Amino acid sequence: MEAADVHAWLMAGGNGGICDRFDAHVFASILSIGLCESSRRACPVPDTVGLDGDTLVEVAARIFPHASSLFGRLAGLAGPDCGEDEQCLRDLLRNCTTEGSTTEFWLADMMARRAMAPNHLWQDLGLRGRRELSWIMERHFEPIARRNTADMKWKKFLFRTICRDEGFRLCTVPVCDECDDFDACFGDESGESLLARVRRDTH
User: Under the GO molecular function aspect, what terms does this record hold (predicted)?
Assistant: First the structure.
């Protein structure tokens, strides 16, 4: 199955889980992209979604109960090896959840893993646009979301925050609008959804 088909299948049976439709869509998007990448790269699913196998089994049971048998095959798989950047991002997001819920911790770990990929963060999460990522941040990571007052690109902002919190100076320009790389942090962040791209590239 293609990533878009997996997403549709997960969402078709997602009404019996603990999440509302938007959150179910977010988890379905990340899982769909992750499953597709795992197959293409011949690597374990935890390496592409950021959660160990037992946690993925729990995610399916609680959000997509109709998919429990499929995800049950992942039980016992070890979690991914996290580099320093990913671990710092995990810690930042986990420390800035809105409610401190289990689903928010899952989402923090999944987002940190997907942020290691090269595209815009919203794309590597399988979302339909940047605005959906902003909704996630405002809804589930409100303490950090409200700090992005200049609407910086989310991946740039998160890593900039990590550097500031750790006492590093990320850039030497005192005012952003004086910087030659302004567009790298604040420029256009449009593009094609990876779910749509995967479907197109396989035809």
Answer: molybdenum ion binding
Distance CA 177, CA 20 (A): 39
* DSSP calls for 127-179: -SSHHHHHHHHHHH-HHHHTT-TT---HHHHHHHHHHHHTT----S-SSGGG-
Task: Spell out the per-residue pLDDT of the chain, length 203, in tens.
Answer: 789 999 999 999 866 677 899 999 999 999 999 999 999 999 999 999 999 999 999 999 999 999 999 999 999 999 999 999 999 999 999 999 999 999 999 999 999 999 999 999 999 999 999 999 999 999 999 999 999 998 999 999 999 898 876 544 444 444 444 444 444 444 555 666 667 655 545 44
114 exposure class (CB count in 10 Å sphere: 0-12, 13-18, 19+): buried
